[in-house]
Design brief:
Largest sheet: 9 strands, mixed
Helix content: 10-25%
CATH topology: lpxc deacetylase, domain 1
Strand content: 25-35%
Radius of gyration: 19 Å
Structural class: alpha+beta
Shape: globular
Low-confidence stretches: 6-16, 318-333, 338-343
Order of helices and strands: EHEEEEEEEHEHEEEEEEHEHEEHEHEEH
Length: 343
């Protein structure tokens, strides 16, 4: 099953916001839910943050705060988890990808996610409920222009050097020109002999495509894997209320799927959240085949390891006509977020 989704909305609107300014939440808002892997009850509050703060996560139960950055990823087994090298594995912040994707979809650049437990609550397994919370309080420009990470040359990672059965890559955005530069993503997944099968989808990311094509897609698993995952201490909070379960050719959930290709839509949702850990909106094109959290993170690490593969592009307001979007200018001196700030 293949498809391409796009809208006529300004292509760069998710890169830098419609007005080219960073945005944060208008007010704090929270909810309570269950952690997918821990099974713990977790209260989560989304807070506004100061201009340029980026996205940060704070665990109030253990006094831990971590920046949402690719170099802070400590685990990628079935979710993306943040951690600090000098603290034990139990003191991580798990399943951050859905709330990160929701921030991208809502154009939020600066926010604090406060939790009283080990992971972001799974809610219904998608980003829909988190997007609803953001909609409830709204967003506001905070006075600081957005900078964009422009991909300058192809970067590709594979599962192993000898095995190309799973891979992910970033390339320069097609027709990349000034503020209209877009982020596009194309992904193929392949689960033979199951109801999932082979699915492909390509998306030009805008607020509309995120909201209507990706936000409602739920996480999924194979019924045969559930016992193994729980024996490994994972998926303890999983249920048919927050995940799609596939048993061979059958979808176990009584209500079925939200779309025929919900599986690849959710995997693209994960890509959006994982790549937001670059610390900047990305101007480029992502392609992947059977890519997951581990490859997504390795891709960012490979990108930032090659200084010739990227540049930070800042708005040039001096070139903008009155009432129009600014042009962009490269900042050759800019450093990747892993080197620019401490956790």
């Amino acid at each position: 099953m293949d498809g391409f989704l796009a809208t006529s909305t300004l292509a760069g609107s998710l890169l830098a916001g419609m007005d080219g300014m960073r945005r944060t939440l208008r007010a704090s808002i929270g909810c309570v839910g269950i952690g997918l892997h821990s099974g713990a009850r977790v209260a989560m509050t989304l807070h506004p943050a100061s201009p340029g703060a980026g996205i940060r996560f704070r665990r109030t139960d253990i006094g831990l705060e971590i920046a949402a950055r690719f170099d802070q990823v400590a685990d990628t087994r079935l979710c993306t988890a943040l951690g600090v090298s000098d603290r034990p594995a139990a003191e991580r912040i798990g399943t951050v990808e859905h709330v990160l994707a929701a921030f991208v979809g809502a154009g939020v650049h600066d926010a604090l996610v406060e939790l009283d437990g080990p992971e972001v609550p799974i809610l219904d397994g998608s980003a829909r409920d988190i997007l609803f919370l953001i909609d409830c309080v709204g967003t506001v420009a905070n006075g600081l222009p957005v900078s964009v990470l422009e991909v300058l040359k192809p970067i590709r990672v594979s599962e192993t050097e000898e095995d190309d059965s799973a891979w992910a890559e970033l390339r320069p955005a097609p027709g990349n020109a000034g503020w209209s530069a877009a982020f596009e993503a194309a992904l193929t997944i392949d689960f033979p002999n199951t109801a999932i099968g082979r699915q492909s989808l390509a998306v030009r990311l805008t607020p509309q495509t995120f909201r209507h094509a990706l936000a409602e897609a739920r996480t999924f698993t194979l019924a045969e894997d559930v016992a193994r995952l729980r024996a490994a201490g994972l998926a303890r909070g999983g249920s048919l209320a927050n995940a799609v379960v596939v048993d061979g050719p059958m979808v176990v959930n009584p209500t079925g799927l939200r779309s025929a290709d919900e599986f690849v839509r959710h995997k693209l949702l994960d890509v959006i959240g994982d790549l937001s850990l670059a610390g900047y909106p990305i101007s480029g094109r992502f392609s992947g085949y059977r890519s997951g959290h581990a490859l997504n993170n390795r891709l960012l690490r490979a990108l930032f390891a090659d200084r010739s593969a990227w540049r930070v592009v800042e708005p040039d307001w001096s070139m903008a006509p009155v009432g129009r979007m600014p042009a962009l200018r490269g900042n050759a001196a800019a450093r990747p977020p892993a080197l620019a700030t401490a956790a």
